[in-house]
Design a protein that fits this description.
The protein has 274 residues and is α/β, with parallel strands linked by helices. The protein has a single domain, classed as 3-Layer(aba) Sandwich (Rossmann fold), CATH 3.40.50. The N terminus is likely disordered. Helix 4 crosses helix 5. It has an 8-stranded mixed beta sheet with strand order 1-2-4-3-5-6-7-8, with helices on both faces. Helices cover 33% and strands 18% of the residues. The two termini are 33 Å apart. The longest helix has 17 residues.
Length: 274
């Protein structure tokens, strides 16, 4: 399996135009539905900052979104469109940056995700919090939701989480073949990097979404994790979108490209039900 080298924005360049893909998506956002607190530190490093989106009419639920980018790229400011989709429905949204390769290697970015969860739980309560991520961000989110010690080490009760959502994430992707990925994860065949390794009870409910045309992160990652989650007796909903690719799954959260996949409606429906 190969992972996108530049994350969602590289793919968006071909979908939209020669203009900045993030600017085009974010230009459709109406800021009237939320207020943003930018660059709030959750740790001492320059990358350990988050943006907090406070909806005008909060529904009491909080979503922490982790973006993708092959663990070596990405910026929270590029995902204003995700915050808008959720905040306009009443969800408080938190989008953190996290440390990236080559400055750090696994598990530092997962530990940063746990640190952002700790900040969010301290502010709002773990029992109000959902984790959500796309691609590498989904990898981090589902490792935190699985039966691992990252959140316990950060001082958060994992089982109080409301649930987790993974969009086109790598959860069962060994062996690694790329030299870069082998360097990021400290070897080609380390099972500790995969959420499926830790898919044993107790587990929170999850929603997994994947496009069947995804050749960046293959759909079997989600189908295999869903099967493992069910085998552990945990609640899981799996959505497979025919002819939908890796980037489309997340950009469909925007109003501009919502017709590319039913991601936005499915995510909001699942969040509302939990």
């Amino acid at each position: 399996m190969t992972l996108a080298r530049r994350g969602v924005l590289a793919g968006l360049a071909g979908l939209l135009s020669s203009c900045s893909p993030a600017n085009l998506l974010n230009a459709t956002v109406s800021r009237q539905s939320f207020a943003r607190d930018a660059d709030v530190p959750y740790g001492p490093d320059a990358r350990q900052k988050l943006d907090l989106y406070r909806p005008d009419k909060p529904n009491g639920k909080v979503v922490l979104f982790l973006y993708g980018g092959s663990w070596d790229s990405g910026s929270k400011g590029d995902y204003l469109f995700v915050a808008q989709a959720l905040a306009s429905a009443g969800y408080t949204v938190i989008i953190p940056d996290y440390r990236l390769y080559p400055a750090v290697r696994f598990p530092a970015f997962v530990e940063d995700g746990a640190g952002a969860v700790r900040w969010s739980a301290d502010r709002f309560g773990a029992d109000k919090l959902f984790l959500m991520g796309h691609s590498a961000g989904a990898h981090i989110a589902l490792l935190l939701a699985a039966n691992t010690r990252y959140l316990e080490t950060a001082g958060v009760d994992r089982l109080k989480l409301c649930g987790a959502i993974g969009l086109a994430g790598p959860y069962d992707f060994l062996p690694l073949k790329s030299a870069k990925l082998i360097d990021i994860f400290g070897g080609a065949d380390n099972p500790d990097i995969e959420a499926i390794t830790f898919a044993h009870a107790p587990l929170p409910p999850i929603l997994l979404i994947h496009g069947t045309a995804d050749t960046t992160v293959y759909p079997r990652n989600s189908t295999n994790l869903a099967a493992a989650w069910r085998a552990a007796g945990a609640a899981v909903e799996l959505k497979l979108y025919p002819d939908v690719g890796h980037v489309d799954v997340v950009v469909a959260m925007s109003g501009l490209l919502s017709g590319r996949a039913p991601t936005r409606a499915d995510v909001l429906s699942w969040l509302d039900a939990h």
